[in-house]
Amino acid sequence: MKKSTVDDEYPNSSKRLFVPAVETKAEITVINSKFIATCAPVFSVEEAKDFILKIRKTYPDATHHVPAYVIGHYSSTVCYCNDDGEPAGSAGRPILTVLTGSGMGDIAMVVTRYFGGTKLGIGGLVHAYGGAAKKVLSIVPRAEKVLMDSFRFDIDYHLFELIKNLFNTENVLLIDHIFAEKITISAKVESFRFPEIEEKLNELSNGKIILEKIYERKTEIRPI
Fold first, then answer.
1. Residue 1: its pLDDT value, please?
2. pLDDT of residue 168
3. Beta-carbon neighbour count of residue 75 at 10 Å?
4. Which pLDDT score is estimated for 3?
């Protein structure tokens, strides 16, 4: 699949981008085999590969390290899984299915197996790897990836309280204000809402406010 883009991932307010907040681990035992599922936020294929390597180094004596990841959200994602020596389709695919059904993106998972001496069969492996993936996702804290625009502008003093009230009402974050001949305001808002806020500021000032972008569409991660 093609790599995700800003417009694919976050075209409007109805689409929220959920990611794991922190690396999280869970463990299950199935007929003496131990399955340790570890998931983490990753924002590129390179980060996902680094995470997989890290888990392999954490459990060097394990029988299998089965990886899967989903980079991006919605219509444009990069997905990957591997069975790492387990029978084809019995390990990586069940984990990836759980990931794609979780509502999260930018997530990598490795399910580490310590063989317990009894073969589980294809169905048993599907159940075990999928079950370990579900267990860790049931406890992982979620965060939200938000695309922000930051901007600044100058105003006359009599507009300051009106601007603050507008920002409070519209959930615009006031970053800074500097008092001089005029007041210089720095603020940020979700990228898809920037045109709306620009229009409201123009209405409030009768077209006298000119916004200058500090940065456009910068990713921030917010705990939920």
1. 31
2. 96
3. 14
4. 38
| Of residues 128, 54, 64, 135, the one with CA closest to residue 102 | 135
Across the chain, which has 224 residues, the per-10-residue mean pLDDT values are 42 74 98 97 97 98 98 90 97 98 97 97 98 98 94 96 96 96 96 94 94 89 88
Residue 78's contacts (CB-CB under 8 Å, 6 or more residues apart) are: 1, 3, 4, 45, 69, 70, 71, 72
Output the pLDDT for position 9. Answer: 52
Question: What one-character DSSP code corresponds to residue 3?
Answer: P
Q: Is 150 left (phi over 0), alpha (psi -120 to 50) or beta?
A: beta
Look up residue 139 and give its two tokens.
């406890």
Helix axes 121-139, 92-100, angle to 10 degrees: 40
Name the DSSP letter for residue 191. Answer: G
CB neighbours of residue 63 within 10 Å: 15
Length of the chain in terms of residues written: 224
What is the rounded distance in angstroms from the CA atom of residue 200 to the CA atom of residue 118? Answer: 67
The DSSP symbol for 95 reads H
Placement of tokens 């500021």 in the chain: 201
pLDDT at position 216: 82
Judging by beta carbons within 10 Å of its beta carbon (0-12, 13-18, 19+), is residue 104 exposed, middle or buried?
Answer: buried
Domains and CATH numbers, the chain: 6-140 (3.30.230.30), 146-223 (3.30.70.240)
Place of tokens 């509502």: 103
